[in-house]
Amino acid sequence: MSNATTHAAGRTAVRVTVKEEQHDAGPWVIVTVSNQGPPIPRELLATLFLPFAKGERSLGMGLGLYLAERIAHAHRGSLTVQTEVGPTTHFVLSWPRKADS
Fold it and tell me: pLDDT tier at 38 (50, 70, 90 boundaries)?
């Protein structure tokens, strides 16, 4: 959320959606964080989830997205990014939902 608000164009909303999707192995939770702002440069996309990867406007150490992706993987999920010329960027966090006991 911090990245989304930091890199959003002035006075634009950050949108968060939460939904459940049915996959072959069962239900998954999908959280999407979207903002409008400059697209992530193509050369940065390839390294975005590596430790210490930072863009020109980055204020942190470049560890946040790396750690978030590792946590997602530890829970058998994923963290991905889609950036559009529109310009809208979507970070999608997904993981399998634990079956009700």
Answer: confident
Q: What angle do CA 39, 40, 42 make, to 5 degrees?
A: 110
The token pair at 6 is: 């930091």
Considering the entire predicted model, what is its pTM? 0.86
37: pLDDT strictly greater than 90:
no
What is the helix (H) or strand (E) element at residue 9, kind and residue range? none
Confidence at residue 101, expressed as pLDDT on a 0 to 100 scale: 44
Whether omega for the bond prior to residue 38 falls within 30 degrees of 0, making it cis, is: no
Contact residues for 11 (Cβ-Cβ < 8 A; gap 6+):
none
Question: CB neighbours (10 Å) of residue 37?
Answer: 19
CA–CA dist 91, 83 (Å, integer):
9
Residue type at position 90 = H
Two tokens, residue 74: 């530890």
Residue 100 confidence (pLDDT) above 70: no
